[in-house]
Amino acid sequence: MNVFDRSINIDALFKFSQMYVNNLCGNETVVMVCFLTCPFITHASFMYYPSSCRSHSTQVHLKNVYSSLAVCMFVAAAGSYVHVVTRLFQGGVLSVLGSLGLMFWLAMTPHNPETERKRLAILEGFALLTGVGLGPTLDFVISVNPSIIVTAFVGTSVIFICFTLSALYAKRRTYLFLGGTLMSGLSLLFLMSLMNMFFGSMVLFKAHMYLGLLIMCGFVLFDTQLIIEKAENGDKDYVWHCVDLFLDFITIFRKLMVILAMNDKDKKKEKK
């Protein structure tokens, strides 16, 4: 299948599953500060983009993508705040099904000037429920060590900026060959998750988290260049392109938090 002919990015569904498949059942301020600084991270990724390398329309498109991503971060922060602080709505099955439904609704709504505001509203709803869905993981990490949230956020930001800049500065199509490998990796992760439902192996769980983190880093490279290539070929659906990068950032953040939390718990057990 030609990646440029897909009306719906199938990899988005796989990446969405990676946000929840291994979800673990003064801290509120830490959570909010991390998410509210995310928009500055997304703009920092684009700030040093060599504008002479792409057409003007593609540059405008990328600005729209990263601006939408910044808004998504703010809205996701609000969603996490709802779960961690107010407890008005808890992350769980309903938030997962809701965000999945909104993602499909967004994908099935055509991109045109008449539906732009509607699709942006759907995108914000998706980001809100995604932020709520982060709640259980944030609760777990806070119970282990609240400082892990800051460490994971800084690590995710560095990863996202470095891989984004690498994709922006690289020659066209340099990283598009990764698409098949990354999709195969996501399929492997899904199978590992199913296997672990029966075996309950901590070794398999850790292997899943580390491999998933590596694969999602690769997706930052792939998705960034794919967005540029699509824009150069006339696909200016910046709302859906934002979804790809948003899922990349959130999934990396979640997996990094869990990895750091597990390592911290292991260190505490060794001391005892």
TrEMBL record:
Domain of life: Eukaryota
Entries under PROSITE patterns matching the protein: BI1
Membrane-related topology note: Multi-pass membrane protein
GO cellular component: mitochondrial membrane
Biological-process GO terms, alphabetical: apoptotic process; cellular response to unfolded protein; negative regulation of apoptotic signaling pathway; negative regulation of RNA splicing
Transmembrane segments annotated in the record for this chain: 29-49, 61-82, 88-108, 120-142, 148-168, 175-195, 207-226
Pfam families the record matches: Bax1-I
Keyword hit for Transmembrane helix: yes
Subcellular localization: Membrane
Keywords for the protein's UniProt record, in alphabetical order: Apoptosis, Membrane, Transmembrane, Transmembrane helix
InterPro entries according to UniProt: Bax_inhbtr1_CS (IPR006213), Bax_inhibitor_1-related (IPR006214)
GO molecular function: enzyme binding
Family to which this protein belongs: Belongs to the BI1 family.
Protein name: Transmembrane BAX inhibitor motif-containing protein 6
The organism of origin for this protein: Astatotilapia calliptera (Eastern happy)
